[in-house]
Every structure is written in structure tokens, then in C-alpha cells.
Amino acid sequence: SLPKTPFSPLKLPFPPEQRMVLVACGPFTPSDSVAFEPLSDLLELVARDRPDVCVLLGPFLDAKHEQVESCQLLSSFSEVFQLCLRTIIEGTRGAGSQLVLVPSLRDVSHDFVYPQPPFPFPDLPKEDRA
């Protein structure tokens, strides 16, 4: 028989009241354009429901998107990707949510390695950095 060990309650890093976590997975564009309309709809939901944590999984700009594969974008991959990230950050700022962005191997302007490194976003204001 195993020796009895004293039970110690789990210590949570946050108060035990209910938490709301929103999780969404990309791509965040329709298949026929790189307009981030589905992303805008999602950001409206975040602003309305104000989750404690918002986890967004890439791809944010999908390398398999028809317009990306055929190089039909009006800006560079990096510029479109930075616009997407800026839209997410500005669209969730007022909700008070902790924002977690998880890159995908299919993100067009991100290194194709595993594990994925953090997103480069040098002009992100200090108050938005975790």
C-alpha cells in the first residue's frame, strides 16, 4: 500500500471566480480576398463579451491563400501581416483581455521552423507588451 501523503489544495495564480476564455483559429480572411472581415467580426465579439483571455491561433496571413500564393497582394507580406497584428491589438485593447497570439507554420511572414519563435512587432507600445 502507498504511504498516505497530506493533501494540499491547488494554489491558483488567479482568484477562483469564473473566467472567460475566447479561443479562435485562423485563417482570419475569406477564401476570395485578404480583407480581414472575419477578423473584424471576431474583434467586435471580443469588444462586446470582454473575455479575460483571448487566444488567437494562426495562420493570420495564410501562405496557402490563393492571393498570397499568386503574389496578388498590393503590399508586401510583412506589411499586410503587421496590419493584421495592429488591427488585432487595437481591436482588443479596450476589452481588457489578455491577448495570446499563437503563430502557425502557415503564417506567410513567419519562420517555417518548429517551435515557432515569437512574432516580431518592434513598434508595439510598451503598455501592450506582456
Characteristics:
single chain, 130 residues, alpha/beta, Purple Acid Phosphatase, chain A, domain 2, 3-stranded parallel sheet, 3 helices, 3 strands, 12% strand, elongated, DNA polymerase alpha subunit B, nucleus, DNA binding
What layout of secondary structure does this protein have?
Elements: E1 21-25, H1 37-49, E2 53-57, H2 66-69, H3 77-92, E3 98-102
Parallel strand pairs: 1-2, 2-3
How would you characterize the overall build of this protein?
By secondary structure, the protein is of the alpha/beta class. It has a domain at 21-110: Purple Acid Phosphatase, chain A, domain 2, CATH 3.60.21.60. 25% of the residues lie in helices and 12% in strands. It has 3 helices and 3 strands. It has helices at residues 37-49, 66-69, 77-92, and strands at residues 21-25, 53-57, 98-102. Strands 1-2-3 form a 3-stranded parallel β-sheet, with no helix packed on it. Helix 1 links the parallel strand 1 (21-25) and strand 2 (53-57). Helix 1 (37-49) runs parallel beside helix 3 (77-92). The protein starts with 20 loop residues before the first strand and ends in a 28-residue tail after the last strand. The mean pLDDT is 84. Keywords: DNA replication, Nucleus. It is found in: Nucleus. InterPro entries: DNA_pol_a/d/e_bsu, DNA_pol_alpha_bsu. Belongs to the DNA polymerase alpha subunit B family. This is DNA polymerase alpha subunit B.
